Amino acid sequence: MAEQQFLVPLDQYLKVGLHIGTKFRTKYMEQFIYKIRPDGLAVLNVQKIDERIRVGTKFLAQYEPKDILIVCRRDNGHKAIDVFSKLTGIRAIKGRYPPGALTNSQLDTFIEAKLLLVADPWPDKNAVLDAVKVGVPIVALCDTNNEANYIDLVIPCNNKGKKSLALLFYILAKEYMKNRSMISSDSEMKETVDDFNDEE
Questions:
Q1: At the N or C end, where does the chain have fewer CB atoms within 10 A?
Q2: Which CATH number covers residue 90?
Q3: Which residues of 60-95 are buried (b: 16+ CB within 10 A; e: fewer)?
Q4: Is residue 153 in some structural domain?
Q5: Number of domain units in the chain
Q6: For 114-168, what is each residue's pLDDT tens digit?
Q7: What is the radius of gyration, based on Cα positions, of the chain?
């Protein structure tokens, strides 16, 4: 597997454990699993992760930043989606998703979105269910224990670790901005993966 075929060097994926899943595996996620470690943890196929990130960023790039909403209830992803949102102009909801934000236009919290990106479809299930009601496509980061019900595009990854979420949102931001011609090359992105991670 040639190194340059990955969006970031292979060792960067491995170092943050982007490929380390959980001991639980759903039927849907089995297609992305490379092997099961002796300790029972499922290991995701890095090549498939990389391929899905590419597909995901191309899909996201078809939408204007104002038409996308990202939701992340899990604390570990808050810093990463903050930086992602600031760079791309995509709106983000951290913490609890306000009920009806996508479905009830009478609410102050109402957001009109054409695409939803969730960091984990389980804690972010209320946003997922609202998106389904209004027919908004859903892209979700899914670990080995996630179900893919209602999800239009799954990006397999460790969606629980701070470092893996930081790397993932760094790549998503970089590729989204390149695909939208907001930057022309990787070198134009001044932020590093460390800027997406609040662990010093």
A1: C
A2: 3.40.50.10490
A3: bbebebeebbbbbbbebbbbbbbbbbebbebebbbe
A4: yes
A5: 1
A6: 999 999 999 999 999 999 999 999 999 999 999 999 999 999 999 999 999 999 9
A7: 16
